[in-house]
Design brief:
With about 750 residues, the protein is α+β, with helices and mostly antiparallel strands. It has four domains: about 180 residues, Bifunctional DNA primase/polymerase domain (Prim-pol fold, 2-Layer Sandwich); about 120 residues; about 260 residues; about 60 residues, Orthogonal Bundle (Arc Repressor Mutant, subunit A), CATH 1.10.10. It is built from 23 helices and 29 strands. The strands form seven sheets. It has a six-stranded antiparallel sheet, covered by helices on one side. The protein has a five-stranded antiparallel sheet with strand order 11-12-13-14-15. Strands 19-20-23-18-24 form a five-stranded parallel sheet, sandwiched between helices. β19, α14 and β20 form a beta-alpha-beta unit. α3 packs antiparallel against α4, α11 packs parallel to α12 and α18 runs parallel beside α20. The longest helix is centred in the middle third of the chain and has 30 residues. It starts with a helix and ends with a strand.
Length: about 750
């Protein structure tokens, strides 16, 4: 019978146990608490109070299960799934031969199915890692991330080495030894941990051509030299199969990486190869970011700076005699919409990328929302002096364009969760101040208003929902850090903004975008001035109402020019899927915000380093050429605002990459990221402009109708149109209606059943 003392022993060691009911005959678990939904601890971690409550309502409890959270985990060896019954003995023998001391830090038990659990503590654990398979079944896996592990002293479980209290934190070297040894027992030739069906290595559009050429043309000798440059060297191994084992210099493991010379791919299994993604960083099925090409090796070697990566690739190519034909540099990319509609996720730190790729929400929506959430966290705490007297803040106005039900709102909720928690803390402090105020006010009234009347405190919120310009300015006047209007539906924000036709609401939002001092004057109330306003705006909007951004006076005042658009092709709605993002991944995401928020009330001035300034100058001048050639005021307005956005992104990205220690310098790498990011948004603006400022009726078309129109020949018959429509998923009746509605605007009728396109 489980006792509270045993549970308390587990909890004292940092392990979280729950009661379970075992059927000793069938060796099956027949009952355990709803631990995922019914835990009262932070982020679903059970507490001793939970255990006491569960034990009162459960009947027949006779066992224990550990809910394993990082840094604790269990290497599970499932003997029943393999014909090799000596897996554990062989694994133990190899580990002992390499470093017997590592076994002092773990505890091992036998399981009810004659398998083994090796309990470990390692700070870089995130979630479950499959290690070895046989016949498609898992033989060895690492369990963590909230998963259950039934354990001693449950029936059928017995400790055979050390006790739970003996578990100590492993070093990178020790963890590598345990796992690389386990991976030697993989019997499935097709199973390579971390290698999945989607092995497309995505590169930034601007560098893709050069990088793909380098990956395909690099010689074996140059590839080996590149691996040596990051301290990886080939070693002999009797377990060698279709890869070459490489070991980090000085490592005690069996190997640190698997190298596939035929495909020029590297799989790093060692967490101690500093600065490189490894097996341990994988976000799970489909995450291939740790599958490294030669270009990716150079990229991580150069601390994720593409400019430095390109310089080294040119040097390697020159020394190895590789002919690489370069395309336009990042500063002179042509605006081709299909190239520009790929979000450059690598502008984010790895922790944010990992959080993104662990979500089922369409990643573009979440990435855009995260940018605004990070900008809100920074607020007025950082400013870029781009030139003498020209100061830039990371104020962003963003519209996430998607059809109903496409997860716009969940994306905003997840992105702003750290800021919601921050506001929650501010509100608790505010409530405490209000209580003090009430007591002081009561005392003031009792004393017949002697002395100075206490002033009611203000709530220094950062997130504003459904508010007027008056309320925004009032909040900003008491919140020097800045805020963000978080509009679930941007159309509602626009409707409120335009409800008073004689007011100056729109003008105030135009001023707010620049971050310049703002003065609000009303006859019915006192003047209100904010010297350093900071207010971003973000919200979702449906394509069908997107044109509301440029209606009436907004058509000519440049209001929509100030907006960034996340406007991808919506993906098919996913089937219902319950996902569980590991606490380590969520914590790393929140930590990025915490590092920024700790410095929110400070004031840090940034400058452009010379290389960053030169890169921006080249890009800026290239955009100026397009500006000067443009005949449309819309195009001129967009280019000028996006030139400013580039500087805002450079500052924002530098601050989040600086983390807890602000450098005050925007580097060339951050400017490169900013240029690629603003080019993405220019591509989306190019798409949105077809609705916002259409030049022809064709610009108003979207989706299937646009595809059908583009595929129609200059002159065509109704029969041809129906055939083309059917190929694109339109029914005959829909095609006929499209033709009828398009007469005069899109088509001219030549004769009965025959048409010409007008554009």
């Amino acid at each position: 019978m489980p006792t509270l003392t045993t549970f308390q022993d587990f909890y004292n060691q940092g392990l979280h146990a729950i009661p379970v009911v075992f059927n000793i005959t069938t060796k099956e678990v027949t009952d355990y608490p709803r631990h995922k939904e019914d835990s009262t601890g932070l982020a679903g971690v059970p507490t001793m109070e939970d255990v006491q409550r569960w034990m009162k309502v459960m009947k027949g409890q006779n066992g224990y299960a550990l809910k394993l959270f990082p840094p604790f985990g269990s290497i599970d060896i499932d003997i029943k799934n393999t014909s090799n019954k000596n897996v554990y003995a062989d694994w133990l023998r190899i580990v002992e031969a390499n470093n017997s001391d590592v076994l002092r830090k773990v505890c091992i038990e036998t399981t009810r199915n004659k398998g083994y659990h090796i309990y470990i503590k390692y700070p870089k654990l995130t979630e479950k890692i499959p290690v070895a398979k046989s016949g498609g079944k898992e033989v060895i896996s690492v369990y963590t991330g909230g998963l259950l592990s039934f354990c001693t002293p449950s029936p059928g479980y017995q400790l055979i080495h050390n006790d739970f209290s003996d578990i100590q934190e492993l070093t990178d070297e020790e963890f590598d030894l345990l796992l690389t040894t386990a991976a030697l027992f993989n019997e499935d030739a097709d199973f390579k941990p971390g290698e999945h069906q989607h092995l497309l290595i995505e590169y930034p559009v601007e560098y893709e051509s050069v990088l793909l050429q380098f990956d395909s043309k690099i010689t074996d000798e140059a590839f080996d030299t590149l691996l040596n440059s990051i301290d990886l060297y080939e070693v002999e191994s009797k377990f060698k199969k279709n890869y070459l084992p490489y070991l980090r210099k000085g490592s005690m493991a069996n190997y640190s990486a698997k190298v596939y010379f035929k495909s020029k791919r590297v799989l790093i299994f060692s967490a101690s190869v500093q600065g490189f993604p490894s097996w341990h960083d994988s976000a799970g099925e489909g995450d291939n970011r740790w599958v490294l090409t030669p270009s990716k090796i150079v990229y991580y070697k150069n601390k994720q700076s593409w400019p430095d990566t390109m310089d080294e690739i040119r040097m390697i190519a020159d020394s190895a005699g590789l002919e690489i034909i370069e395309g336009p540099p990042v500063t002179k990319q042509p605006l081709v919409s299909e190239d520009r509609l790929r979000f450059p996720y690598d502008v984010f730190p790895v922790s944010i990328q990992t959080y993104l790729f662990n979500q089922v929400i369409q990643h573009e929506y979440l990435a855009g929302a995260i940018l605004v959430a990070l900008a809100t966290a920074i607020g007025n705490s950082a400013v870029l002096e781009a030139m003498d007297g020209y100061f830039v803040k990371p104020i962003l106005y963003m519209a996430i364009v998607a059809p109903p039900g496409a997860s716009k709102s969940p994306a905003l909720k997840k992105a702003f969760a750290p800021m919601e928690e921050y506001d929650g803390g501010l509100y608790k402090a505010y409530q405490a101040e209000v209580e003090v105020f009430k007591k002081s006010l009561a005392a003031f009234e009792r004393d017949k208003k002697k002395g100075e009347k206490p002033e009611k405190p203000a709530f220094p919120q950062t997130l504003i929902k459904d508010s007027t310009i008056e309320m925004v300015v009032k909040i900003l006047s008491t919140n020097p850090g800045g805020c963000c209007v978080l509009a679930d539906e941007l159309s509602g924000f626009l409707a409120r903004m335009n409800q008073y036709k004689t007011g100056d609401e729109v003008q105030k939002w135009l001023e707010m975008w620049s971050g310049a001092p703002i003065l609000l004057q009303r006859i019915t109330r006192d003047e209100n001035k904010v010297q350093e306003p900071f207010c971003s705006v973000v919200g979702g909007i449906q394509p069908g109402v997107l044109e509301s951004l440029s209606k009436e006076e907004n058509e000519h005042n440049g209001f929509y020019h100030r907006f960034l658009f996340v406007y991808p092709e919506p993906k098919p709605k996913e089937k219902w899927l319950r996902i569980s993002v590991s606490e380590a991944v969520k914590s790393a995401f929140v930590q990025v915000f915490n590092d920024i928020l700790r410095q929110r009330l400070g004031k840090y001035k940034y400058r452009l380093e010379e290389k960053a300034n030169a890169l921006y100058e080249e890009w800026f001048n290239n955009k100026n050429t397009k500006y000067n050639r443009a005949t449309s005021d819309h195009v001129k307005g967009i280019i000028s605002k996006y030139q400013d956005y580039c500087l805002r992104f450079a500052l924002l990205l530098q601050v989040i990459h600086d983390g807890a220690h602000r450098t005050g310098v925007v580097t060339e790498a951050s400017m490169d990221r900013a240029i690629r990011l603003v080019e993405y948004f220019l591509g989306n603006m190019h798409k949105a402009t077809k609705i916002l400022a259409p030049e022809t009726p064709v610009d108003k078309l979207s989706g299937t109708h646009k595809k059908v129109y583009d595929e129609l020949p200059a002159a065509f018959s109704q029969k041809q149109a129906i055939q083309i429509g059917n190929l694109n998923g339109l029914k005959e009746s829909a095609v006929k209606m499209f033709l009828i509605r398009g007469i005069k605007t899109l088509f001219t009728v030549i004769e009965r059943g025959k048409y010409e396109k007008n554009y």
